[in-house]
Amino acid sequence: MSCNWDKRNGRETLSYALFLHRQELQRPKRFRRLMAIANTKLKLTDELIRLQRCQWKWQAPSEQQLDALLRERQYRDILKHNMQQHQLKQQRKRRQCLEAKFGRNNRQQQTRF
Questions:
Q1: Residue ranges of region Disordered (predicted)?
Q2: How many degrees, rounded to 5, is the angle at CA 102 between CA 100 and CA 108?
Q3: Cβ-based neighbours of 87, under 8 Å, separated by 6 or more
Q4: CA–CA distances in Å: residue 77 to residues 33, 46, 84
Q5: What is residue 76's predicted lDDT score, i.e. its pLDDT?
Q6: Cα 36 to Cα 12: distance, rounded to the nearest angstrom
Q7: Boundaries of every domain in the chain
Q8: What's the pLDDT tens digit per position in 19-67?
Q9: Tally of CB atoms within 10 A around 11
Q10: Cα-flanking dihedrals φ and ψ of residue 59, to 5°?
Q11: The pLDDT value given to residue 2
C-alpha cells in the first residue's frame, strides 16, 4: 500500500489516510483519544491561521490581528512539539516493554546452551 500526500492540492490521498488510521489503531486507547483531541485542535488552529492569511490578501491586517496570528502560531507550534514529545515517550515505553519481554526470553534461551 502506498502512502501518498497529494502535493498539488495539499490534501491526503485515500491510501495515506488509511495508513494513518491504521497507525492510530495500533496505539493504546487513552493515547489515541488524547492524540485525536490534540490533532483536532491542531487542524482547527491551522485552519484559523489559513483563513486569517486569506483575509489579508484583500485587506491589510491591523496590529491586533497580527498579534492574534502570532499567538495562534505559537500555540500551534507548542501543540505540535508536545504531540511529538508524547509520541516519543510512548515509543520509548513500548520499546522498553518489548526489550524487557523479549530480552528475558533471549537470556533464558542463552543460558540453556
A1: 83-113
A2: 100
A3: 35
A4: 20, 10, 11
A5: 92
A6: 17
A7: 28-112
A8: 777 776 676 676 677 788 888 888 888 888 888 888 888 888 899 989 9
A9: 10
A10: -145, 130
A11: 39
